[in-house]
Amino acid sequence: MADPLDPGLSDRSRRIVYTGAAGGIGTMTRPLLARLYPGLVLSDRVPPKDLQPGEKFEAADLTRPDEVAKVVKGAHSVIHLGGHSVEGSWEQILNANIIGCYNLFEQARLAGVKRVIFASSNHAVGFYPRKKKIGTNVTVRPDSRYGVSKAFGEALGALYSDKHGMAVTCLRIGNVGPRPLDVRRLSIWISPEDLVQLFKIGLEHPDIRFEIFYGASDNEAAWWDNSRAQSLGYKPKGRAEDHRAHAEAEQRKIGPDPVGDLFQGGTFCSAEFSNDVKRAGA
Ligand code: 15L
Q1: C-alpha distances in Å from residue 267, one per residue of 27, 161, 217, 259
Q2: How many CA within 13 A on the CB side of residue 26?
Q3: Active site residue 146
Q4: From the CB of 175, is ligand 1 less than 6 Å away?
Q5: pLDDT tens-digit series, residues 224-278
Q6: What is the pTM of this model?
Q7: pLDDT over 80 at 7, yes or no
Q8: CA of 85 relative to ligand 1 center, distance in Å
């Protein structure tokens, strides 16, 4: 697809940097992405354990602007998954997800990167009750310090898009894997293949300026309206409902969570919770 932001470089072999490539999502999506984008460069603090002979890896610590500058140099696009991927101490979140995310956007801007895909999370909106269906135009309701850092990343993305013309796609990812792990994940699950479809839209669609999509497959029990992604060509193939029996069996092993079961973010909401569920909007 021709890129109006970069008309001379519509070729897929351009440099695309994938941060956080050694993590769980990186491991599931790397082989699929490599087939589409021969110029893919994997990055993380340490190389993926299963790095393949044809794969290119460059180490970078996101808290170090000099290392980030080096890895984004000459890149057309960045898929930014790097950072702390669950709730953590303030210090962990501050370093990996606040400072790290700022370094990524700022060094990408300085290097002339055209497109950034930011791995946001469902936890940016985790305190919406499960009974409410939400679109991408809602106020953020983070359920954790981690969720706050994802809302921060989305805000940074909007800034770099509006102020500097970067084409930014934020993906509020649900849970990625071969199948949904429990009943909550029946609403938020996304297959690795469908996530790669969203990456591709973010990397190639000519209309992208600033977008927020939900990273979810075609889930009957969905809590999210993902019509914007669909209008840009997203056609998820995964169907959580096909795995309902497995998800329900797993759920029986977990047992009830009186707070987390009411909210979209699940255990991220119940951890450290000291409010009343009604007051929190259940
Ligand atoms: C996330 O954002 C996490 O990165 C992942 O580990 C899961 O906890 C997922 O959300 C989820 O909500 O299932």
Answers
A1: 24, 33, 21, 8
A2: 26
A3: yes
A4: yes
A5: 999 999 999 999 999 999 999 999 999 999 989 999 999 999 999 999 999 999 9
A6: 0.96
A7: no
A8: 7
